[in-house]
Design a protein that fits this description.
The complex is a heterodimer. Chain A is α/β, with parallel strands linked by helices. Chain A has helices at 2-16, 33-47, 61-74, 91-95, 103-108, 111-114, 119-124, 147-152, 161-173, 185-209, 214-217, 220-236, 244-252, 265-271, 308-322, 324-334, 350-360, 368-371, 374-389, 395-407, and strands at 23-28, 52-57, 81-85, 125-126, 129-130, 132-134, 142-146, 177-179, 256-260, 280-284, 293-294, 298-301, 364-365. The chains are: A alpha/beta, B mainly alpha.
Chain lengths: 410, 297
C-alpha cells in the first residue's frame, strides 16, 4: 500500500511538471542487470523522437508488479504504457474497455506482415481489434550449465536432462549444488512445465494446458513427469536463494552446476561477460530431441488516456518499439528473440542462434500464460512450491492434487 | 426538526456532534459499507474486476479445500497464541525489572523500545539475514568450533513459523513493555508500602495485587497485540515470502495473493470474509462481557 501511495504521488508530481515534449510513463518489472540494460534501449529510442520516457520500474518480479499496475489502471490513474506477459493477464482490462486499441498503428506499420510467429499478434487481438505490442519472445525451455562446475567435478558437460540427473551425486561429492532454483513459486512451476514439454512432449503439454484434461493429468504419462520432478527437487535441495538472478549467479560463479530458466537468464551471463560454449552451455528443450519452445514473452499495453498529446505519444512509442533497429538492440541486451522475422541478428550469440533456429523451424507452442488463467497458475504455483519444499509429499499425492486443479482449470 | 420549548436532545453538544460527522460517515460508508460489499461479492465469481454473477457458496467450498488456506489458519493460530502469551509475559517481566529503580533506566528503555521504530519489512529482512544458515547465527556458531550446529528455522518447514515469531516478538515486546511500565508507575506507592508492612513477598504482590489493578492496561495491550496478529502480513512477505513451500503462509497473504496476483477477487473476498467472521467470533462475546450489561461509572 505504501508503495502504491508513493507511486501515485510520484506520478502526480510528473503530471505537474510536464514539459513541452510529452512525458510518457512506462511501468515494467525489468529490473535485473541484463533487463535494465535492455530497457534503456527502448528509452533511448523513444527519447530520440522528441518525447520523454519516464521509467516506472517496479522491482520484485511480475507477481509484485502486476497488482500495482492493475490497481492503477482500474483506480483511474493509468500510466502511459505498461508491460504484461503475452497472454491472459490483461484480458479483463481489455474487456472492461480500459485499454486503447492500436488498429490504426498496426495497419500503418503492417504488423500483420512483420510479426512472426503470427500467434503473438493473435494473443494481442480481442474481438478483431489489436490491443498490445509484443516486444520479445521468451522461451522457458532452457537448461543453463556451468562448464567450470562440471570441470571441477571431473565430468563432461551433460547433453540432456537424464545425463544431468545421473551426474547429481558426483556433483554433490565435489561440493557443487547440482541444481540452482529460486524459492519463488513461479520458478518452481516454470521448471515443472519445462519437464512436461521436454520429457512428455508437445501432445501431453497441450492435453494438459489447452484441453485441461484431468484424466491425462492423472495418467501414467504425467506420473513419469512427477517422477522427474521428484529427481529435480532432490537435486535442488540446499539452493537457498530467492530470486532467479541469484540462482543464475550461482551458475555463473560455478557454485551450482545448472539452472532451468527462461532465456532471460542469458542476459545475466552476458552482463558477467561469459561466453556461450566456453564458460557456459545452453540446452534448448533441456537437450531432449526435437525441442519445442513456448512463445511467451512481454507485450506492452496502452491504457486509454484523455490527454490527446499523450495518446499521440503512445502511438509513437508503439511504432518505435517494433522498429527493426530497436528490436535488435533491445533483444540482444535482454537475451530474448525479436518478434520480427526480418531483422538481422548476425551478432546474436550461439545460444540465441539455437533458439532462432527452433523458431524458424516452426517448433513453437503457446506458453501457459496464454493457455490458463492467472487463477489456475497461482494454484499450480502453490502446489509446486509445496511439493518441491516438503519431501514428505509423494509424487503420487502431488499428481492427484495437480489433476484436481486441471479438472477445474479455466 | 420542529421548534420546541426545551432544547432538543439532538442539539445538545452540537459542536461535538458536528465534529464527529466525518468519522461517522467514514465508519458507515468505508468500514460497514466496504464490509457488506466484500461479503456480497464473496458469493460471486468475480475475477479481475468485480461483477455480480452469483455462484453460491462455491468460493467457500474451494477455500476450505485448499491446502494453503488450512496451513495459513494453523500458522496464524500458532503465531497468535504464542505471540500473545510471550508478548505479555516478556513485556511485563521487562517492565517489572525496569521498575526496580535501577540505574540507566532510560538507556535500557530506549534499547528495548528501539526495534519498535523499525517497520515489519525492515524487521523481516534483518531477521532473514540473522537466521540465514550461510552467514547468520548458524555460521557464527559453527565458526566458534561447533561444526555440527544447526539453526536454520527459515529453511525448515516444521519450525519456520517460530522463526517469524522470534522476529515479531523482538519488534513488538518493547512497546508492550512501555505500556506495562506506564501501568506500573500508575500504581500508588502506598500499596507497595502496605504490602511490605504485611510481609507479602514481592512476586506475590505483583501477581495478586498489582496485576489485577492493571486490568485496563492489560486490555489495551491485548487489543494492540491481537490486531497485530490478525493483520500479520508484511513480516511474512519480507522474511519468508510464505516459504519454504507454503509453510509460513498466513490468511492476510492468501487474501492479497488471490485478489491481486491470481486475479480472483471472489476467492480473496471469501477468505477475507472468513477472517472477519473469526475476529467477530472472538470479539463480540468479549465486548459484550466487557462493555455490555454494566453501567458506565
Amino acid at each position: 500500500m505504501k508503495l502504491m501511495t508513493a507511486l501515485l504521488a510520484a506520478s502526480a508530481f510528473c503530471g505537474a511538471t510536464i514539459a513541452n515534449a510529452t512525458d510518457l510513463e512506462v511501468t515494467h518489472w525489468w529490473t535485473s542487470g541484463g533487463e535494465s540494460a535492455a530497457v534503456k534501449e527502448f528509452a533511448k529510442a523513444f527519447d530520440a523522437t522528441g518525447n520523454h520516457w519516464v521509467d516506472g520500474a517496479i522491482a520484485g518480479s511480475g507477481d509484485t508488479a502486476r497488482p500495482i499496475m492493475v490497481s492503477r489502471i482500474t483506480g483511474g490513474d493509468p500510466m502511459g504504457a505498461t508491460q504484461f506477459n503475452h497472454g491472459r493477464q490483461a484480458e479483463e482490462l481489455v474487456q472492461a474497455g480500459l485499454m486503447r486499441n492500436l488498429d490504426d498503428v498496426a495497419k500503418a506499420e503492417h504488423w500483420a506482415d512483420v510479426i512472426n510467429p503470427k500467434s503473438l499478434l493473435e494473443g494481442c487481438t480481442y474481438q478483431g481489434h489489436i490491443y498490445c505490442v509484443p516486444v520479445n519472445i521468451h522461451a522457458w525451455q532452457w537448461l543453463w550449465l556451468s562448464n567450470a562446475a562440471f570441470a571441477k567435478a571431473n565430468l563432461p558437460v551433460p547433453a540432456n536432462w537424464e545425463e544431468f540427473v545421473a551426474d547429481g551425486p558426483a556433483l554433490r561429492k565435489a561440493g557443487i549444488q547440482p541444481l540452482a532454483l529460486g524459492q519463488q513459486s513461479w520458478q518452481v512451476t516454470g521448471l515443472f512445465n519445462n519437464l512436461i514439454l521436454a520429457l512428455g512432449g508437445k501432445d501431453l503439454y497441450l492435453k494438459i494446458f489447452q484441453d485441461k484434461d484431468a484424466k491425462v493429468a492423472a495418467g501414467p504419462d504425467m506420473a513419469k513427469i512427477f517422477k522427474a520432478a521428484d529427481d529435480a527437487r532432490q537435486l535442488a535441495q540446499g539452493s537457498n536463494v530467492q530470486d532467479w538472478n541469484q540462482a543464475t549467479n550461482m551458475v555463473i560463479t560455478a557454485k551450482a552446476a545448472a539452472q532451468s530458466m527462461g532465456d532471460w537468464a542469458q542476459g545475466e551471463f552476458q552482463v558477467a561477460k561469459q561466453v556461450a560454449g566456453k564458460d557456459y552451455t545452453c540446452l534448448p528443450g533441456l537437450g531432449e530431441p526435437n525441442p519445442y519452445i513456448t512463445t511467451g514473452g512481454d507485450s506492452i499495453y496502452f491504457p486509454k488516456l484523455s490527454d490527446p498529446a499523450k495518446s499521440a505519444a503512445q502511438e509513437v512509442l508503439a511504432k518505435v518499439m517494433l522498429s527493426p533497429a530497436t528490436q535488435v538492440a533491445f533483444n540482444l541486451k535482454k537475451g530474448s528473440m525479436p518478434v520480427r522475422g526480418d531483422v538481422d541478428l548476425s551478432t546474436a550469440n550461439d545460444c540465441m542462434k539455437k533458439g532462432l533456429a527452433i523458431l524458424k523451424a516452426g517448433n513453437v507452442i503457446k506458453s501457459t500464460d496464454e493457455l490458463i488463467s492467472p487463477d489456475t497458475t497461482t494454484q499450480i504455483n502453490d502446489l509446486m512450491s509445496q511439493f518441491f519444499n516438503d519431501m514428505s509429499i509423494t509424487p503420487d499425492d502431488a499428481q492427484k492434487k495437480f489433476a484436481a486443479i486441471i479438472g477445474t482449470a479455466n | 426538526m420542529p421548534e420546541t420549548q426545551r432544547p432538543s436532545q439532538l442539539l445538545r453538544n452540537l459542536n461535538a456532534k458536528v465534529a464527529s460527522v466525518p468519522m461517522i460517515l467514514t465508519a458507515m460508508f468505508v468500514f460497514v459499507g466496504g464490509t457488506l460489499w466484500t461479503v456480497l461479492y464473496s458469493f460471486t465469481d468475480s475475477k479481475l474486476l468485480p461483477r455480480l454473477h452469483f455462484v453460491g457458496l462455491s468460493q467457500y467450498d474451494r477455500l476450505w479445500s485448499t491446502a494453503r488456506w488450512i496451513v495459513s489458519i494453523e500458522n496464524l493460530a500458532i503465531y497468535g497464541v504464542l505471540s500473545l502469551v510471550f508478548s505479555l509475559v516478556i513485556g511485563f517481566v521487562l517492565a517489572a525489572l525496569l521498575d526496580q529503580k535501577i540505574r540507566f533506566e532510560n538507556v535500557f528503555r530506549t534499547i528495548f523500545l528501539y526495534p519498535f521504530a523499525l517497520s515489519f519489512i525492515v524487521t523481516g529482512l534483518v531477521w532473514q539475514w540473522i537466521l540465514n544458515p550461510d552467514f547468520g547465527v548458524q555460521h557464527i556458531i559453527r565458526g566458534l568450533g561447533f561444526s555440527k550446529f544447526v539453526f536454520d528455522p527459515l529453511y525448515n518447514q516444521e519450525i519456520v513459523i517460530y522463526g517469524v515469531l522470534i522476529a515479531g516478538l523482538w519488534q513488538g515486546t518493547g512497546l508492550i513493555m512501555c505500556l506495562m511500565l506506564a501501568g506500573l508507575r500508575g500504581i500508588d506507592e502506598e500499596i507497595w508500602k502496605a504490602a511490605r508492612v504485611d510481609g507479602i513477598p514481592m512476586w506475590k504482590t505483583y501477581i495478586f495485587i498489582i496485576i489485577p489493578m492493571m486490568r485496563p492496561v492489560f486490555i489495551t495491550t491485548l487489543v494492540i497485540i491481537a490486531s497485530g496478529i490478525v493483520k500479520l502480513y508484511d513480516l511474512i512477505v519480507a522474511q519468508t515470502g510464505g516459504g519454504p513451500g507454503i509453510s509460513s503462509e498466513v490468511p492476510a497473504k492468501y487474501v492479497y495473493d488471490f485478489m491481486f496476483r491470481a486475479q480472483n477477487l471472489g476467492q480473496g473476498f471469501a477468505a477475507s470474509t472468513m477472517m472477519l467472521l473469526a475476529v467477530a467470533i472472538v470479539i463480540i462475546p468479549w465486548a459484550y462481557l466487557e462493555f455490555g450489561g454494566k453501567k458506565r461509572g
